[in-house]
């Protein structure tokens, strides 16, 4: 089970980190604690009431659109471009459902429209937290936490106009995103005058981070009836999205391992030469077939970037498995020294039976043991019969 499941502060990944030494965000004006149970999730709710009506900021809900397992888009009404007035914060509510959403990755993207700030040094701060919204106080200081709640900070400005936040295995319930625009001065941040900043907001849920990239594969896993998605990294790569290359294999190592694995199929050359010399042409053709498809299947089955596929992976795998089983089958049948017509019938029946078995269960153990034991049984019967007649004929 993921470590951060059910935690109030899940692990997050952000591409642009907040600058150090930012001023702090004051707490809400209400002295009463605000919890998730006091905020309806399907209606427009408001922050704690104050005497000033300008500080009563509405919380705008989002529209949920489920596309697939752990694939959800959250649409904002009259969005995705959001206008943030200079004197108010824009607050949005994102509802994550239990079981359905907790096993994926919550993604948040924020982009500032530089033309909307008209050259002013404006910074848009975003605070994403679970359970209750956080707001700004009169001193216009910024801090994404209170005495009992801590969240994730996002910021965009003219210099860095795009920021992304990713939270693997987010806690279910309602998440609140508070956006506020402030102007930077020599004395810190203060409210802007008559400038409405415009930002592009995108919020969505995905199974894995960036689909695990080039060196990973996103898989759905189940542990104790809990369904979640995780990256299976290859070639020594690691991390939430298979982006950690501290222990990754080098290109030369991947190339060498691929070449050695493919060249190992040259071991089929001596059996082919012996079969051709002994006039076992059908058996030799099966060995050549196996050698060819085994070489290119292993070249296509590499975990890193040294990959070469001449056709679809599934076709190469089927032909490699079929050739391997047929090589065992024709070799044992040939060793039985049966009559030509009987041998040809067994070859044909073996090819059809093995093809059917591979379609049913390509990785089954009995796909190899079954035909091998059956062929060995035929060879044993043929040899015992030959010895029996040779014994009594003498």
TrEMBL record:
InterPro entries: EGF (IPR000742), NGX6/PGAP6/MYMK (IPR021910)
Main location: membrane
Keywords: Cell membrane, Membrane, Transmembrane, Transmembrane helix
Stored PROSITE patterns: EGF_1, EGF_2
Subcellular compartments: Cell membrane
Annotated EGF-like domain residues: 231-242
Transmembrane residue ranges: 248-268, 280-299, 305-329, 364-384
Membrane topology: Multi-pass membrane protein
Cellular component, GO, one term: plasma membrane
Protein family: Belongs to the TMEM8 family.
Protein name from the UniProt record: EGF-like domain-containing protein
Organism in which the protein naturally occurs: Albula glossodonta
């Amino acid at each position: 089970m993921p470590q951060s499941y059910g935690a109030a502060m899940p692990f997050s990944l952000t591409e642009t980190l907040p600058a150090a030494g930012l001023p702090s965000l004051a707490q809400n004006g209400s002295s009463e604690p605000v919890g998730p149970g006091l905020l309806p999730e399907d209606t427009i709710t408001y922050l704690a009431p104050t005497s000033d009506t300008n500080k009563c900021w509405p919380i705008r809900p989002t529209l949920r659109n489920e596309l697939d397992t752990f694939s959800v888009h959250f649409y904002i009404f009259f969005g995705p471009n959001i206008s943030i007035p200079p004197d108010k914060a824009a607050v949005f509510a994102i509802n994550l459902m239990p079981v359905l959403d907790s096993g994926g990755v919550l993604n948040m993207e924020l982009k500032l429209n530089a033309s909307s700030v008209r050259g002013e040094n404006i910074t848009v701060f975003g605070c994403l937290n679970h359970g209750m919204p956080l707001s700004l106080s009169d001193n216009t200081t910024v801090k994404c936490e209170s005495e009992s709640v801590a969240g994730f900070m996002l910021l965009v400005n003219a210099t860095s106009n795009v920021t992304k936040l990713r939270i693997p295995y987010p806690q279910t319930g309602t998440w609140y995103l508070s956006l506020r625009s402030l102007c930077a001065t020599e004395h810190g941040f203060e409210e802007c005058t008559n400038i409405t900043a415009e930002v592009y907001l995108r919020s969505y849920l995905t199974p894995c981070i960036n689909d695990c990239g080039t060196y990973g594969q996103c898989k759905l896993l189940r542990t104790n009836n809990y369904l979640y998605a995780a990256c299976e990294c290859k070639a020594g790569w690691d991390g939430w999205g298979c982006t950690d290359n501290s222990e990754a294999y080098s290109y030369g190592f991947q190339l060498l391992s691929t070449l050695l694995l493919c060249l190992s199929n040259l071991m089929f050359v001596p059996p082919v030469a012996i079969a051709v010399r002994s006039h076992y042409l059908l058996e030799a053709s099966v060995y050549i077939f196996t050698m060819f498809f085994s070489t290119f299947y292993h070249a296509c089955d590499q975990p890193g970037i040294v990959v070469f596929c001449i056709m679809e992976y599934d076709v190469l795998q089927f032909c490699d498995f079929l050739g391997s089983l047929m090589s065992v089958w024709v070799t044992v049948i040939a060793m039985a020294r049966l009559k030509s017509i009987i041998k040809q019938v067994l070859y044909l029946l073996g090819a059809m039976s093995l093809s059917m078995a591979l379609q049913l269960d390509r990785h089954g153990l009995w796909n190899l043991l079954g035909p091998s034991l059956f062929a060995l049984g035929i060879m044993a019967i043929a040899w015992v019969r030959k010895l029996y007649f040779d014994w009594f004929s003498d």
